[in-house]
Task: inverse folding
């Protein structure tokens, strides 16, 4: 199954790169830097948001992480995240971080945060016998960027009020029913949702978080919007990368430490 999922991941990655970097289907200000808003316009783009079922959930952690990686590719622009991390220099980094503030307002960004946090939990609880695949380490790095730049770009008052007051939702430790979530967060108002249209869905904490927002709570730790907590989440992920990665994967942790240092100064919002 791991080989099959890696093939799917490569196809989705190729589609998103082709459609976002070499297409003018939708202006950036309209698709809000959410890859799915472009991928859905092309019949070759792949959506696997309903692949997750009981059998898959109980498979090797590396397979679960690959599934999360596919979903994150549909909800966050990896190229934009890489630029925001400093790949193309300081000027491009500043522009990308400004663009990510637009993305941070979207339900897709909040869904990406759940996938990122669940990836953190999955790899934190893996067994030595499960091994650590290269794609899992790469996905963990991508998860760190998603959560870090979401916190950096989110204004303090970005949380919308849901239909009623609920307990806080832990993005990592909560049991997430992806069958109920369906394509929540990646379908537009004009696009039929693959998830059931049932008012009872709002009883699901993950659905409420995707729709209305809320604090970032991971393993009982609350992360507030702003550079200080964005740095804090990067350090958490860097520590796990140091633990799960081998010596030839150490660059990912070092990159997170470098991104951490660039967040020291407050990020100007526009």
Result:
């Amino acid at each position: 199954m791991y080989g099959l999922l890696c093939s799917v991941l490569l196809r989705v990655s190729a589609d998103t790169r082709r459609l976002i970097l070499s297409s003018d289907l939708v202006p950036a200000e309209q698709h809000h830097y959410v890859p799915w808003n472009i991928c859905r316009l092309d019949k070759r783009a792949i959506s696997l948001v309903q692949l997750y079922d009981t059998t898959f959930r109980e498979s090797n952690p590396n397979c679960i992480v690959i599934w999360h990686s596919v979903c994150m590719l549909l909800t966050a622009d990896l190229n934009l995240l890489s630029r925001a991390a400093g790949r193309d220099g300081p000027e491009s980094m500043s522009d990308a971080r400004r663009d990510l503030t637009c993305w941070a307002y979207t339900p897709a960004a909040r869904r990406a945060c759940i996938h990122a946090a669940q990836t953190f939990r999955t790899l934190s609880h893996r067994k030595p016998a499960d091994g650590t695949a290269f794609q899992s380490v790469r996905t963990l790095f991508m998860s760190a960027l998603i959560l870090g730049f979401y916190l950096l770009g989110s204004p303090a008052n970005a949380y919308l009020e849901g239909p009623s007051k609920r307990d806080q939702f832990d993005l990592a430790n909560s049991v997430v029913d992806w069958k109920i979530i369906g394509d929540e967060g990646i379908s537009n108002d004009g696009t039929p949702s693959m998830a059931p249209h049932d008012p009872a869905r709002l009883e699901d904490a993950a659905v409420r978080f995707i729709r209305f927002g809320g604090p970032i709570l991971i393993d009982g730790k609350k992360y507030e919007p702003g550079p200080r907590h964005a740095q804090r989440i990067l350090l958490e992920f860097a520590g796990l990368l140091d633990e799960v990665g081998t010596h030839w994967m150490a660059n990912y942790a070092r990159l997170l430490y470098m991104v951490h240092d660039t967040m020291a100064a407050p990020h100007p919002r526009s």
Residues 189-196 have pLDDT under 50 and may be disordered. Residues 2-262 form one domain. The chain is about 55% helix and 0% strand. The first strand starts at residue 216 and ends at 218.
